[in-house]
Write a structure and sequence with these properties.
The chain is mainly α. The chain is 74% helix and 0% strand. The two termini are 20 Å apart.
Length: 461
């Protein structure tokens, strides 16, 4: 039977189906801006921070391919992807409430406070990964291929808005009079209340997507693939391992780009608070409790909010820039800008001028969230959208795991616990990612997308 063409979706419909990402990224913004600060408040040393952060990529490594496979092969009255949104949101909201209160929970149960904090952090990461992967797959499910870049760009805009709110929330609460200083071994009230607000926004945004978005039925998916309903091959769980061996060549090349990109991002998220405290505020690496240290923590959230804010207008510009110079050139330019932004943090000593560094990072972040997926989406068969998006996540989490294991010892033994030097290393990693994008991905100029199409045609499923 002839294939039925997916209808174009309106901007409003794409926003509705992506709104949950705003809540998810608010949770990530709170975590990225405050997890190192929380762990330091609870007694962690700077060289231990990357080890505690390992829970995030490890859970992503395990969870996302499994959730993708399950989403590809199950259907419920609620839909194909939406059940995972809901389950992930509820569990993550609980983790948001518990993480900053780990010290208080130890009064109820006998447990090491740092161990308990890591358990709550792992709970957050596990549940966010349950909710996040289906949102990526939903773009492939719902949109015709020519709207893919638009769909991921709109997700990037909502991600930016959520991350700005999450990153800035502790700072906003401080300005409203909520204390940002905690007793030794506890977390400041501005952070605790920010996490409560994040939990509420997460639940509300996920429910909004669930109630405003109708997923296509199995019959409609069959029509889009030009077959009769019920004739598709039902993948077994073991087939997921076969999918690893048949990933598209384009995914492998983009994976190399992702490795250096996410190595740099992980470096920034883990070590910025310590870098600001020691390099810009002149504190000792051992100072993790003072008012000045917590000011560095607030500044970290503010800067992370800024790069996410700058990412929003860049997300609008990605499509016209890509049409003008090509997708790979756009991504390479964005990565180079981000690398220079991170490196510049070493040279800009005035904290009031660090917003300049965040401009390049905003461009890079917007592109990292959209362009690799926009280049990849045409290479993935519809029936494997979820599992391949989950597998693509490997190229995000593996560099974070590698960095998490070795980053702390490098900062301690090579840089004397001066984290700013490792931030510079992260900047050079983004520069390398830009070079890999230019020289490993085929095509040049406006014709690059044509050659990307040739790579896609080489894929056999």
């Amino acid at each position: 039977m002839a294939k039925k063409i997916k209808p174009n979706l309106t901007i409003a419909q794409i926003i509705n189906m992506s709104m949950g990402f705003l809540g998810i990224q608010m949770a990530f913004g709170l975590q990225n801006g405050n997890a190192s600060r929380i762990l330091a408040n609870l007694g962690a040393d700077v060289h231990q921070l990357s080890w505690f952060w390992l829970v995030a990529p490890i859970t992503g490594l395990i969870v996302q391919p499994i959730i993708g496979h399950m989403g590809d092969n199950t259907w419920s009255p609620l839909g194909r992807r939406k059940p995972y949104f809901l389950i992930g949101a509820v569990l993550c909201a609980i983790g948001l409430v518990l993480l900053p209160n780990a010290a208080s929970v130890t009064h109820l149960i006998a447990a090491n406070v740092l161990l308990l904090a890591v358990i709550f952090l792992a709970m957050m990461d596990f549940s966010v990964n349950i909710a996040m992967e289906p949102f990526r797959a939903l773009v492939g499910d719902m949109l015709p291929k020519h709207q893919g870049t638009l769909g991921f760009s709109i997700q990037t805009i909502l991600i930016g808005i959520g991350a700005v709110i999450g990153s800035e929330m502790p700072n906003w609460l401080t300005k409203m009079g909520v204390s940002n200083v905690a007793a030794e071994g506890y977390v400041a009230n501005n952070v605790i209340y920010a996490f409560y607000i994040g939990a509420a926004v997460l639940i509300a945004s996920i429910l909004y997507t669930i109630f405003t978005t109708r997923e296509y039925s199995p019959k409609e998916f069959a029509e889009f693939e030009g077959r009769e309903e019920g004739t598709e091959h039902r993948s077994k769980f073991s087939d997921m391992f076969k999918d690893f061996a048949t990933i598209p060549p384009l995914m492998k090349k983009l994976g190399a780009v992702q490795f250096f990109s996410w190595f740099a991002l992980f470096t920034m998220w883990v070590f910025t608070t310590s870098a600001l405290a020691t390099h810009h505020f002149g504190l000792s690496p051992e100072d993790t409790q003072s008012a000045e240290f917590n000011k560095a923590g607030d500044l970290t959230g503010h800067l992370f909010g800024l790069y996410n804010l700058f990412a929003i207008p860049f997300a609008f510009l990605l499509t016209p820039i890509a049409k003008a110079i090509g997708k790979k050139q756009t991504h390479a330019l964005a990565l180079l800008s981000g690398g220079l932004g991170l490196i510049s943090m070493f040279f800009i000593k005035d904290t009031g001028m660090l917003w300049i560094s965040m401009i390049g990072l905003g461009f890079a972040w917007a592109s990292i969230l959209a362009m690799p997926y926009a280049m990849l989406i045409d290479a993935i068969p519809q029936r494997k959208m979820g599992v391949y998006m989950g597998i693509f996540n490997f190229f995000i989490v593996i560099p974070q795991i590698f960095n998490g294991i070795f980053g702390g010892p490098i900062v301690k033994n090579l840089f004397g616990n001066m984290s700013i030097d490792y931030i510079v290393v992260g900047g050079f990693c983004l520069v390398i990612a830009a070079a890999v994008t230019m020289f490993l991905i085929k095509g040049e100029g406006k014709d690059s997308d044509k050659e990307l199409e040739e790579e896609i045609q080489q894929v056999h499923f």
